Structures are given as C-alpha cells and as structure tokens.
Amino acid sequence: MTKKILLGLKSVIVVPLFWVFTILISAAFLLVMALRFRGAGEALVQLWSRAFLAVAPVRWVVSGTEHVEPGTQYFFLSN
After folding, report:
1. In contact, 47 and 25? CB cutoff 8 Å
2. Rounded Cα gap, residues 38 and 57, in angstroms
3. Cα(74)–Cα(26) distance, rounded to whole angstroms?
4. pLDDT digits (tens, 9 = 90+) for 20-34
5. Which residues have a Cβ under 8 Å from the Cβ of 3 and sit 6 or more positions away?
6. What is the rounded distance in angstroms from the CA atom of residue 57 to the CA atom of residue 15?
7. Cβ count near 44 (within 10 Å)
8. pLDDT at position 23
9. Beta-strand (E) ranges in 7-74?
10. Measured between alpha carbons, how far is 7 from 12 in angstroms, rounded to an integer?
11. pTM, 2 dp
C-alpha cells in the first residue's frame, strides 16, 4: 500500500517537473543551435536523456561493447 502511494506521489511531483525541465532544455538547445556552439547541443541531449532514464522506471543492460571501435560512427536502432 505504501509503495503505491509513493509511486503516485512520484508521478504527481516528478512528471510536471520533468516537463518543465524538458521545456528549459529545449529552449537552451535552440539557443545553442542558433549560436552554433559545437558539442553543446549534444551535451544537452545527453543531459535530457539521462534525466529521463533516471526518473522513468526503465532498466537497461548494455552488452557487446567489446565490438564497438572507438572513433567509428554507428547508428543504433532499438525496438
């Protein structure tokens, strides 16, 4: 029962805060892209995605990193 209350409370508090965070990151991203700061846009996207994964009930497992060569470009698609 207590766990359900805590999950509900998390939804009521975290979801609106995350929307505000998304709007602020979006505005910063547009500013960074307009001023052409190289690398800053990617850093903002990484910050947003890590924040999303931190508040979402998502767990992930990474495997096969030994097959990734540093300095090589890759395109990853998940389902």
Report:
1. yes
2. 32
3. 25
4. 889 999 999 999 888
5. none
6. 12
7. 20
8. 93
9. none
10. 9
11. 0.58
